Amino acid sequence: MAHRLRILVVDDGHANRMLICRFVATLGHDSISAVNGAEAVALCRDALPDLVLMDVMMPVMDGRAASAEIRRLCGERWLPIIFLSAKSSEAEQLEGLAIGDDYLPKPVNLAMLKAKIEVMARIAEMQQRLADNARRLEAYREHNEQEQQFTRHVLEHIVGYRECCTGPVKRWIKPARHLSGDVIAHAYSPTGAFHVLIADSTGHGLAAAISAVPAVDTFHTMTRRGYPIGSIAREINVKLRRLLPADRFVAAALVGVDPYRNRISVWNGGIPAPVFVAGEGRIAREWPSRHPPLGILDDAEFDPRWDSWQWDEQGEVFICSDGLIEAENRDGEPFGRQRLLDTIGAARGDEAFAAVIDAVTAHLAGRDAHDDLSLASIACTGALYQPCAGRDRPSIETPQFAASNWTLALRFGVNEIARDAVQPLLTRWLNQIGLDAAQFGELQLIFSELCHNAVDHGVLGLDSRLKREPDGYDAYQRDRAARLAALAAGAIEVRVAQIVDGGRRRLELRVKDSGRGFDPAPAPADAPADGLPYGRGIPLVRKLAAALRFEANGTEAVVDYPL
Amino acid sequence: MTVRLACRDDQAVLTIQGRFDFNAHAEFRKCSEAALQTEHARRIVVNLAQVDYLDSSALGMLLLLREKAAGAGGPEVVLDGARGIVRQVLEVANFSRMFRIG
After folding, report:
1. Which of A143, A419, A557, B16 sits at 20 to 30 Å (Cα–Cα) from A78?
2. A442 inside domain
3. Which CATH number goes with the domain that contains A253?
4. Are residues A284 and A356 located together in one domain of the fold?
5. pLDDT on residue A530
6. Strand A504-513 relative to strand A250-258, pairing
7. Distance between CA atoms of B85 and B51, rounded to whole angstroms?
8. Are A413 and A464 part of one and the same domain?
9. Among all residues of chain B, which has the CA nearest to that of A248?
């Protein structure tokens, strides 16, 4: 026997007690003894033995009463008790087994006693192993629970569930486990446009939640620097492709809302089609997934093109993960896209978002979903959003700087133009020239328009009248992406000059392109009425600036902006 | 859920039945490794005709198979016979960019 046991021998007969104790010793075990039940209980109170050999009939306290008492002392632990008794009728044996674990008639057959001790020792050892395992499992469970809570706390802060700025976005996430692999993030670009990311990582729980972190981080950084959604999607794809194993990826939709031009841009890789819901629940537009999820394709294969669309009636964009559409009720029937659209259509204005949550919750009827569920909506009202306070603080505020005449000149080549990086790079310079938040936002808008015109119509030679055609925006964007990819030569020059004149400051902004130019004269007469899907940029600049004129045969736009 | 492998001529055909999700992981890996080791196989066909549900971890397994096949200098992976919700999932994920879909 591998294990040396501590065996309690209880018998009021001295000879019998001594015999069994000596026999136990010859088997290699230790023995302690008691002369009646009460003494046995007292010994057990000090320290529990591994096994008890218990006489039944004893003075003071008999074997059965003592056994019941010892069982109470044991609590959850199992302590084998073998009854030794001169009474050996079937009824008496059965009565003994009701409390004890085995029964041996007196006079004791020593060979039989040896065998029974061995059996009990084996069982006791097994019980011990089980109890140890259960304890280890419980410790592991607790440890795991703590780590999950910690991880959840950190991840929620990284992906910004608790950030202060809410803006026009509503969001709802119901994780299948502690941690969600679905993420909804939003951020303002320097031009006041609004970006939303909805991401659904493979699987759920910790692995999925971690996969989403690089995506969210890149989304926030690049949006703040003014990159367009296609460039952001590309960068996230590169990161995830490098970081994740081959069988993990992140389905994602990036939505950009430009409230100044009533324009929505969508890059969708693997998310159920977001919808634009106009008045009375009418679906005005859908954006089906046109790309594989992020983290799968090599950068060379990646397609950053997005769909762009202009709304002519206020509305709300709804986006959800496939978990919501696939959420099953008791009968295994999925919630389904049709039910989603019907629910949105039937609700009045503001209530659609809550109505969808109620409908899915009712559909699940208390059951857990297999996958994370998430829903986001973005109000597209066309009102000027207030960018977050404290977003981009001017970094230079010296009086000398404000009182000087200075000029900043930047030249962007094919590399920057082809990567749509002109505006983001410009933003980082503008951050340095001591503007307040409102001026910064307005300058961003002005430069955004002028650079956009310089690239599209100057360098790329695109004709914005293309947008008049039905589906013209898509055709325009396709044409733009093709020309950008094939671009071999071209440049944009930006000059910002501060002019201090009689104590008044103004900025002169110049954006010059390498294109062939145009005749700017008919532009005012051709200015579009509100509601047309093109040509909003120049009127917007005229509204924000004191003056706008074109020089150098229409290749250079000059703006006066009083400070 | 079951996965079966059959080889004929220059094709290794993996036939999957039932729900194709995370629980299929061990069996799919075993069969796809056997398929990759099939000599002369110029094409691995994943037959999805009898699959009635497929989730993102199944998509992950298919991507892994494609990568291993490419690494082995090897066979083209074809997804065949998808219907209903399974075809929709492949479409939303634009898997036609990475696989030939029969």
Report:
1. A143
2. yes
3. 3.60.40.10
4. yes
5. 43
6. unpaired
7. 9
8. yes
9. B60
Q: What's chain B's Rg over C-alpha atoms?
A: 12
Mutation target for B interface from A287, A296, A303: give the one with most B CBs within 10 A: A296
- Pick from A197, A294, A299, A212: nearest CA to A249: A294
pLDDT tens string A230-285: 999 999 999 999 999 988 999 999 999 988 778 899 999 999 999 999 888 888 99
CATH number at residue A31: 3.40.50.2300
- Domain containing residue A439: CATH number: 3.30.565.10
Whether residue B94 and residue A202 make contact (CB cut-off 8 A), yes or no, is no
Does the pLDDT of residue A470 top 80, yes or no?
no
The residue behind tokens 């997804």 is B79
Taken in order A388, A390, A394, A398, is the CA torsion positive or negative?
A: positive
Chain A residues with CB within 8 Å of chain B CB: 200, 202-203, 245-249, 251, 269-272, 288-293, 296-297, 301, 322, 370-371
In terms of domains, do A321 and A228 share one?
yes
- A179 & A256 share domain: yes
In the prediction, which pLDDT does A513 show? 92
Mutate to test the interface with B, among A182, A198, A201, A202 (most CBs of B within 10 A): A202
B59 vs A39: CA distance, rounded Å: 69
**What is the number of domains present in chain A?**
3
A419 & A539 share domain? yes
CATH number of B48's domain: 3.30.750.24
- A453 and A505 housed in the same domain: yes
Number of domains in chain B: 1
> Is residue A515 included in any domain, yes or no?
yes
B88 touches chain A (CB under 8 A): no
Range of the domain at B50: 2-101
Q: Encode pLDDT of A73-83 as tens digits.
A: 888 888 899 99
Residue type, A315: G
Q: Where among A131, A147, A182 does a domain terminate?
A: A131
Buried b (16+ CB within 10 A) or exposed e, A79-97: bbbbbbbeeeeeebbebbe
Check pLDDT > 50 for residue A532.
no
Residue A192 falls inside a structural domain: yes
> What is the per-residue pLDDT across B77-92, written as a single tens digit (0 to 9) for each?
999 999 988 999 999 9
pLDDT band at A166 (very low <50, low <70, confident <90, very high): low
Which among A314, A307, A192 has a CA at the least distance from the CA of A255?
A307
**Nearest chain B CA: its distance from A177 CA (Å):** 15
* Residue A522 in this model has a pLDDT that exceeds 80: no
Top-confidence range, A175-184, A200-209, A277-286, A354-363: A354-363
Taking the CA of residue B6 and the nearest CA in chain A, the distance in Å comes to: 24
pLDDT at residue A78, as a whole number: 82
Closest residue of A to B94, CA-based? A292
Residue A347 burial (CB count, 10 A): 18
Tell me, yes or no, whether A67 and A169 share the same domain. Answer: no
Range of the domain at A332: 159-380
How far from A296 is each of A69, A219, A236, B62, B94, CA to CA, in Å? 67, 18, 11, 12, 11
Is A393 a member of any domain?
no
Convert A421-436 to b/e letters by CB count within 10 Å (16 or more is b): bbbbbbbeebbebbbe
Q: How high is the pLDDT of residue A160? A: 61
